[in-house]
Amino acid sequence: MTDSYSMGTKKFDEEFCCPICLDVFNDPVVVRCCGNTYCEKCIQAVGAKCPYCDIKTEFTKNLIIKRIIDESEVKCKCGVFFKRNEALQHKIVCRLEPKKCRYCAFIGCAEDRLKHGMKDHQDVILRAFTQYID
């Protein structure tokens, strides 16, 4: 998510960064052995072995960190601000989000798909337009 969205401050990214994947926590969990926080998938990927303590440990969801991250504001490259937990909804409507052409394998943002459609699928567009005005 960090390649498409900016958390706004470098300090936020550093404070809420998983030491395993080096990205902002995704489904944060706290380990019982030392109280450090990791992404749930990251700690599972290392066999629930704490990287700091080097022992297998139990973990529970870190709801406080999750709430802080989910409620933090992010900015998309398109300029729109929204809460981090609204990123999936924004991705559906974002004009910069690459999507597949419905007629071929082309993938591009909204502007590129429009240019592609006008160049490579004029017949389909004209047929649809003709049906619409009839």
What does the secondary structure layout of this molecule look like, with pairings?
Elements: E1 5-6, H1 10-15, E2 28-31, E3 37-39, H2 40-45, E4 59-61, H3 63-71, E5 73-76, E6 81-83, H4 87-93, E7 99-100, E8 107-108, H5 110-120, H6 122-133
Antiparallel strand pairs: 1-5, 2-3, 2-4, 5-6, 7-8
Can you put this structure into words, describing what you see?
The protein has helices at residues 10-15, 40-45, 63-71, 87-93, 110-120, 122-133, and strands at residues 5-6, 28-31, 37-39, 59-61, 73-76, 81-83, 99-100, 107-108. With 134 residues, the protein is of the alpha+beta class. The radius of gyration is 21 Å and the shape is elongated. The termini are far apart.
Short characterization:
One of its GO terms (molecular function) is zinc ion binding. This is RING-type domain-containing protein. The chain is an alpha+beta fold.
Mean pLDDT: 88
User: Roughly what fraction of the amino acids lie in strands?
Assistant: 15-25%
Bulk shape:
elongated
Given as residue ranges, the uncertain stretches (5+ residues, pLDDT < 50) are: none
Number of helices: 6
CATH fold annotation of the largest domain: Herpes Virus-1
> Can you name the CATH architecture of the largest domain?
2-Layer Sandwich
Rg estimate, integer Å: 21 Å
**How many distinct domains?**
2
Following the backbone from N to C, one meets helices and strands in this order, namely EHEEHEHEEHEEHH
Percent of residues in helices comes to 25-40%
- Major sheet attributes: 3 strands, antiparallel
Text of the CATH class of the largest domain: Alpha Beta
Structural class: alpha+beta
Kindly report how far apart the N and C termini lie: 44 Å
- How are strands sequenced across the largest beta sheet? 1-5-6
CATH homologous superfamily of the largest domain? Zinc/RING finger domain, C3HC4 (zinc finger)
Based on DSSP secondary structure assignment, what is the total number of beta strands? 8
